Amino acid sequence: MQNLKPIMLVGTGSDVGKSWITTGICRWLKQRGFQPAPFKAQNMSLNSFSTPDNLEIGRAQAVQAEACDIPPTVEMNPILLKPSSLNKSQIVLHGKPIGDQTAKEYFLGDNKKQLFEEAKTSFRQLASKYNPIVMEGAGSISELNLKHRDIVNMRMAEAANACVYLVGDIDKGGIFGSVYGTIALLEDWERKLVKGIIINKFRGDASLFVEGRKTLETLTGLPVLGVLPYAKDIIIEEEDSVALNRRSTTAIDGKLNVAVVKLYYMSNYTDFQALEQESLINIYFTRNSEEIKKADVIIIPGTKNTIEDLIALKTDGLDTVIKDRYTQIPVIGICGGYQILGKSISDPFSVESHVKLETGLGLFDIETELSQTKQTIQRHFKFKGFDSVCVGYEIHMGETRVPKNKHLNLIDEKEEGYFDGDKSWGTYLHGIFDNQDVVTELLQLKFPEAQAKNYRQFKAEQFDKLADWIDENLDMNAIVKNSSETC
Length: 487
Fold this sequence. Notes:
single chain; alpha/beta; Rossmann fold; 2 domains; six-stranded parallel beta sheet; six-stranded mixed beta sheet; 30% helix
């Protein structure tokens, strides 16, 4: 199999579909005998994943690695920024947290030079094992006030000698201005790296855009290599926080209504992707007390700032609503949400907040102390009394004290999580709903004969459908040819 130069997807802005197209190209290449791997130098996201060697990367790169049918590694996303307050983020370098910085400190400080070197080192390590590397940029490539400090877009493309493709979102409108303006603002050396344009999220008959396609090519001097249709029937995890705002927010009659309390610093909302694929479940994200009262199940999700989100629940009066519903329906806590449902959370080292101790909702007989060490580890476990082995992963900073024999799960005979003995439970395990037995138990609260689908098989099918979508609508022959030549 021939060696290919890196393929890089960059955007006119955020949420244009770079992650989707990157994932689809990864799967397409894998199907054709290549050994691709994803790479994103810097990711800002509260959706993260634990690698097999217990390091933390962005969830999007873990999904892309799954599409490549390879294990996720920290080289795929060497720098991860996890927002922890209004203008502060935790910096995760090579899978481990190295401290917090404000946006001003991060983007205006000198440490970006060192981080760029670290990113390039990770890229070289990855490129020595896989071919080709399918790279993803972040946001817009023409942010003039920031790009001289940028380490994820065109400077990274130059360092990797990548063939770059600009993705524009036609569904948002203004496609000519966004694509032409983006390219016009590039410097000469940047323009030379761009090999084509990809139009994404086209609704309707693509033949109606033939003239538009020609106009863009004339304006930019670059080929339009694909007009990708809006794909509603392909389900792939979406990384961008904008995607969360498109989720359902209300209960629906005739379904098992699962309300996820929308925390201000909610993390890993991809935990609930499997539930969204069950036709009998309506999962919705809300802070509306009346909608929470309509739920058959309430979930408190993970959070990057547990104490501040706990305080906000009390301020908004949602603690009372959750406590009242606890006497009638299951209340489930995942990671930070699990901590919130306990009696107290202490933060002696100010890991997340200046508040040293906060009383929890008191529904679970547990107490949590936040620690300076982050736990990131993949797990195999048994859920409740089920015989099947489940999989999940932990990403948290804290230790929770649980009374003996009140556990939810067993990990190599070690107790994990909390079960109240009735219907409510909590766990540190992200991805717990990816397991068939766990979702089947939820479904049978309202539909006794229901069986959950095999979510892992479902994901594999979606990757294949995404590759077909790429094959039918994107000129991959041109992209492979470009990468076979000098970019």
